[in-house]
Fold this sequence. Notes:
By secondary structure, this protein is α+β, with helices and mostly antiparallel strands. The protein contains 2 helices and 8 strands, in the order E-E-H-E-E-E-E-H-E-E.
Amino acid sequence: MSHQVTVSEAAARPTVVVAATTTWREFPAVWPGLLDEVWGCLRAAGIDRGCRNVMLYLDDVPNVEVGVALDRPGPLTGRVTASALPAGPVATTVHRGSYAGLGAAHQAVADWCAAHDRTPAGPRWEVYGPHHDDPAEVWTEVHWLLHHMG
């Protein structure tokens, strides 16, 4: 699949997340529980839809924040905290199809950065479209924060 990469200026987007330090090998088994914690907190506050799932990778350790984009306040419990997706210049692509292909989308952004002499700042994140049982209907935004030019 070919991924078109665009650059834009992103505003900070409020999120509600559980933060964790993990390994890339462990992450696939860890993130569902983190997301379940966030949704449990939201459901207890009467919020059961309208929030897009997000995964923010702060670095390559990875230190991660898993949760949802949420632009309204709500009571937070347990390990669930308020945070935000970063603001600044971002390189973005949209991946369509199975989540198994997200690595190719990230690689496309990395390749674009190298080809256009843009330096990633470190944080990168995924914003998921609505759930769909048909993988062909699934889409995910992949964003990489860039260093400012000049």
